Amino acid sequence: MIKWMIIGLVLLSFGIADARVLPDTVQLHYPIDLDPLKISGNFVKLSSKELEKKYDDYTVGINENGLIITCNQVGTECLDKAEFRKVLDDMEKEGAYDLSKEEKDSIAGLYQPNVIIKDIPKKSLIGVKIKAKFLEFIGKIFCTHYEVVQECSGDWCSLQEHMSEECAGLE
Asked: Quick one: fold of 22-114?
């Protein structure tokens, strides 16, 4: 009887773990001008400050703080660096922002699934790294979310969001 209870708990835990899997996303934090996008008619208006455009394999969500690209299916690689660069070019053609070719090359070069790409001046980079270490340390006691710098190209950096182990039971 105990054997069957243990097997049941193991299967249940696998089911719960599988249910927590989310599709890959990539975020670009950069000011976006929503007005040209609203006028273009190529975007679905989710709210006064949020727009969305669906592609075959992914969806681009846009607000005034940046964009987030989410794969439409879990466990698929819907984007690569070339496709991400294409999205950057498409958004610029729509009038969302004005980035130089070099900036778009730097941003596209930082692409990896599940990263956040931000413009972080070199003088602020040390502060961002110290903040991450501090929040990681505090995370041993409290539930904290923090961003760890993965790599940088010029002033653009890719970061990965982490959550302390104390958060595991809270979600």
From this structure: TATA-Binding Protein (3.30.310)
∠ Cα 52 81 24 (to 5°): 55
Q: If you write DSSP's letter for every residue of 102-137 in order, what string do you get?
A: HHHHHHHHT--TTEEEEE--HHHHHHHHHHHHHHHH
Query: Phi and psi (nearest 5°) for 37?
Result: -70, -40
User: pTM for this one?
Assistant: 0.78
pLDDT at residue 18 is higher than 50: no
pLDDT at residue 8 is higher than 50: no
Q: Are 44 and 53 in contact (CB under 8 A)?
A: yes
Residue with token string 């596209």 = 108
Return the DSSP state at 152.
E
CA distances from 96 to 22, 43, 47, 117, 119 (A): 27, 12, 17, 16, 16
Range(s) within the chain of domains with CATH label 3.30.310 = 22-114
Mean local confidence (pLDDT), 94-107: 90
